[in-house]
Amino acid sequence: MDQTYSPGHMSYELVKADEDFLSTTPSDYSILRRRPETSPYYRTPGPAISRFLRRRYSVEPTSSDYLGNGTIPTTVMYKICSYLNKKDLLHLMSTCKRFRDIGKDSSFWQFLNLYGKHISCSSLHAIIDRKVQVLRLNSATINVEVFPPWHNFPILNPAMLTHLDMSSSKFENPSVLLEILQRCHNLYALSLELCGIIDDQMCKEIAKNTNLYFLNLAMAKSFSAEGIVTILSSCRKLGELNIGWTELSGDVINLTCQLLPPSLKRLSFSGTRDKAEMNDDNIKRICDTCKQLEELDLSDDVVITENCLDHVKNLKNLRILTISRCYGIEPMAFLSLQNLDIFNVYGCVTVEGIDVLRSRLRPTRINVSPLSSIAIPTDGESVTSIWKKRTRDWY
């Protein structure tokens, strides 16, 4: 039989519930209102089934600092850091002051590869301050930050750089390149290929590197007579010089041929095209001054004739000669070059003519290298090394 609820009966139940609530002790009430602790739980990976497991509490905290001074010797920490690449080393330096001081040691920053990176000017100077010796900035973009008027700029000390590759680098402001060159007075190798305008002030800073051996200025622009004279008058230990396609004026070409250092072993003076100053007389002047030349590139110098080959043959150490697209030279004169290892004449003769040269000039190799490697930082299989100096970490 169904039970019938009357209004009086409902009021009786509410009164009964109130009496039970009032009879509850304060301790029971606080227990009921307490929320469960969710932090010890975590969701485990798996299928659609939701499983929650209780996390095991860690051991009692200890006051021992296992990485503090005196526990692990500093020499051991230096050894550990020597196996880290630059990215992991920076992460380690951000953990504590001790690791930051250890990570700043110059032994970890002897070389650095920033190929194609976007980097601020202040960050680049901070890297140079860590006494980097070999720095690759090929195709990098260097930006300039905007600082408030009250910002205190740090004093830029002389850099320890010996090998610097800034080929195809992009500078937001030409003054950035000048600031970098102002810090570098001990360079052994420098590449400014495709770096845009090289003014007289930059040439003066380059000239301060009196021990410079490799200098690549290919496709740079705006060289003045004063700038080129400053460089060639101071850098008398140059072994490899590349000034191809630099759009030199006639006066600058004459001065360059007169001031080339006798120490040169590899020279690229290509791309003068129809400049009348790049003639047989200046080729004679080059051969008389630089008698130790082992490789000479005169490609796209269309004014020179076969008469210049008489002077080239006097270079006893010459092993590689490139005269590609020198249309003013009579092809029959090529047969007089008997003592070369490599002879590049791209665009001067036909395919049949190449076969004739290979048979008549044997064992000279014909048309082996279409691109010049004179003073070029990366050459051959070492795509991350510059002038045979490594720039890449082990991993």
Structural class of the secondary structure composition?
Answer: alpha/beta
Biggest β-sheet description: 11 strands, parallel
Instruction: Report the CATH architecture of the domain at 238-375.
Output: Alpha-Beta Horseshoe
Shape: elongated
Secondary-structure element sequence?
Answer: HHEEHHHEEHEEEEHEHEHEHEHEHEEHE
- Please, what is the average pLDDT? 86
**Please, what is the CATH homologous superfamily of the domain at 238-375?**
Ribonuclease Inhibitor
In angstroms, what is the radius of gyration? 36 Å
Pfam families: F-box-like (PF12937)
Organism: Ditylenchus destructor
GO cellular component, one term: SCF ubiquitin ligase complex
Protein name: F-box-like domain-containing protein
Q: Which terms would index this structure?
A:
Leucine-rich repeat, LRR (right-handed beta-alpha superhelix); 16 strands; three-stranded parallel β-sheet; eleven-stranded parallel β-sheet; elongated; alpha/beta; 13 helices; 395 residues; F-box-like domain-containing protein; F-box_dom; Monooxygenase; F-box-like_dom_sf; LRR_dom_sf; 30% helix
Structural write-up:
It comes from Ditylenchus destructor. InterPro entries: F-box-like_dom_sf (IPR036047), F-box_dom (IPR001810), LRR_dom_sf (IPR032675). This is F-box-like domain-containing protein. With 395 residues, this protein is of the alpha/beta class. Among the domains are: 42 residues, Monooxygenase, CATH 1.20.1280; 138 residues, Alpha-Beta Horseshoe (Leucine-rich repeat, LRR (right-handed beta-alpha superhelix)), CATH 3.80.10. Helix content is 30%, strand content 12%. It contains 13 helices and 16 strands. The chain has an eleven-stranded parallel sheet with strand order 3-5-7-9-10-11-12-13-14-15-16. It has a three-stranded parallel sheet with strand order 4-6-8. Strand 15, helix 13 and strand 16 form a beta-alpha-beta unit. The relative contact order is 0.07.
